[in-house]
Amino acid sequence: MNIAKLTIPEVQDGLRRKQFTAVELTTEALRFAQAENPKTNAYLTFSDERALAAAARVDAKLAAGEQIGSLGGVPIAVKDVIVTKDVKTTCASKILSNYIPPYDATAVERLEAAGGIILGKANCDEFAMGSSNENSAFGPVRNPVALDRVPGGSSGGSAAVVAQGTAVVSLGSDTGGSIRQPASFCGCVGVTPTYGRVSRYGLVAFASSLDHIGPFSRTVADSATLLGAIAGRDERDATSARHPVPDYAALLGDSVKGLKLGLPKEYFAGLAPETGDRIMAGVEILKQLGCEVTEVSLPHTEYAIATYYIICTAEVSANLSRFDGARYGVRSSKSDTLSDMYKNSRGEGFGTEVKRRIMLGSYVLSHGYYDAFYLKAQKVRNLLTQDFTKAFEQVDALITPVSPFPAFKIGEKVNDPIQMYLSDIYTITGDLAGIPCMSVPCGTTPDGLPVGMQILTKHFAEDVMFRLAHQYEKAGGFTA
Predict the structure, then answer these.
(1) How far apart are CA 336 and CA 342, in angstroms?
(2) Which of 45, 252, 344, 390 has the smallest set of CB atoms within 10 Å of its CB?
(3) What is the architecture of the domain spanning 3-251?
(4) Closest C-alpha among 214, 174, 209, 194 to residue 424
(5) Domain ranges of the chain
(6) Are 176 and 312 a contacting pair, CB within 8 Å?
């Protein structure tokens, strides 16, 4: 079996045909992943015992003639900001370097209930804060496509394991583009569902009004299957939606002829040809499939970066206050007073980017600045959301770039946070509005670096997004 190329249907077909057992597949997947990991540093922790126990349960169901679930026997990686019972969850931070959660995230529970096999925890930017996966306390992730380049962030490890073939699918989290940008840089599919579509229970909070959990895969069908398994209402998360979850995978074959697609003019102004040409080639394929394409406007886009970094840092400041060396996290041993213990534990435990965002957030929430910054940003966020609402009155989906550029070299932007923040300029708007969006491959640059095309639809219209992406994939769009 070629572990590095398997899809969900191929895994399940192999199990049914008795080409391998789930335990045999899992054993080989663990061996392969552990052998390949030094090249990319994509995994932080492997969960051999848990994976093999889950595989044994799948084999027992097969032997008894029972259904094994939509993810039965499938090797999966989970981003290390999603908690896993009895398996280390560090958020790629020194302050949680020894944290072993006593419970599973809802998404993890649902993965295993559907028969999924969790191989281990994927590396990421510390507390999911970053656009390159260089902020991990345990070293950067390297892009499997070009080892001297970043895989994108913050879910760089989750994208890299899929691109490297050391997991069939994976879970990441997205707050400002942290699924779609790594998917674009690594040449795989990445999906950010509607806010509330997937429970955030057990996702270590970054910015609670922006955080999403979503899938990575090599095919659109695999992402549709994975999202279908983890989506749905969860009473433990008050923000999870009561919206019914369609059978996304069953709807993939429907025609896209007649769908109206919008190209936001603000997203294409000044776009470099190495990225823009690939996006427009993808648009031509969608036209050939019978889609109608028109230009639209999202007029408040220019305010998105400032709005995002006010709101997200304010929420960071509140959410990370719990990591103080007393309730959570590694405690400093260099302190004589309680105040010093808090200060030293956080100073030693948090990395530079996390500290930067905590300080920015504390500032915008401070007395005298709340109305000037945070409240105003929330008003602009509403305007950005209205832009999308009006656009979706005209079109069924929007097509945009994912990033202004392909994967950049490790170290190239690490000392320039403003340039790093600007790499999310096309993705943060979807998170601010809470709409579903995804990145699909649309060819490579002349240097062979992957380029992603972004598809966005209205709230809870993931079925339209998946159908469009699947038909595009079938038409050869991934290599456009």
Answers:
(1) 11
(2) 390
(3) Alpha-Beta Complex (3.90)
(4) 174
(5) 3-251
(6) yes
| Strand-pair partners of 398 | 262, 456
> 108: which residues sit within 8 A by CB, 6+ positions away?
78, 82, 83, 84, 85, 118, 202
Query: What gap in Å lies between CA 385 and CA 381, rounded to an integer?
Result: 6
79 is an active site residue: yes
Cα dist from 199 to 108, 216, 234, 333, 388, whole Å: 10, 17, 6, 37, 24
DSSP state, residue 146: B
- Enumerate residues 6+ apart whose C-beta is below 8 A from 172: 79, 122, 124, 155, 158, 159, 178, 179, 182, 190, 213, 214, 215, 216
Q: Which helix (H) or strand (E) holds 453?
A: strand 450-456
* SS3 label, residue 66: coil
Q: What are the backbone angles phi and psi of residue 262, rounded to the nearest 5°?
A: -110, 140
Report the distance separating Cα 172 and Cα 132, nearest Å: 14
How many helices (H) and strands (E) the chain has is answered by 16, 11
Instruction: Verify whether residue 355 is a known catalytic residue.
Output: no
Q: Average pLDDT in the 301-305 region?
A: 96
Residue 171, H or E segment: strand 169-174
| Closest among 136, 134, 159, 177 to 413, alpha carbons compared | 134
For the question of residue 390 being annotated catalytic, the response is no
To which residue do tokens 């074959």 refer?
253
Q: What is the DSSP letter of 375?
A: I
Q: Choosing from 136, 178, 403, 439, which is the catalytic residue?
A: 178
Order of all β-strands in the sheet with 450-456: 43-46, 117-122, 75-79, 169-174, 212-217, 189-192, 437-444, 450-456, 397-401, 260-264, 292-296
Chain segment 169-204, per-residue pLDDT in tens: 999 999 999 999 999 999 999 999 999 999 999 999
Of these residues, 70, 79, 217, 317, which one is catalytic? 79
pTM exceeds cut of 0.85? yes
pLDDT tens per residue, range 379-418: 999 999 999 999 999 999 999 999 999 999 999 998 888 8
CB distance 350 to 395 below 8 Å: no
Per annotation, catalytic residue among 132, 154, 332, 423: 154
Q: Over the range 157-190, which residues count as b (16 or more CB within 10 Å of their CB) and which as e? A: bbbbbbbbbbbbbbbbbbbbbbbbbbbbbbbbbb
CA atoms within 13 A on the CB side of 469: 34
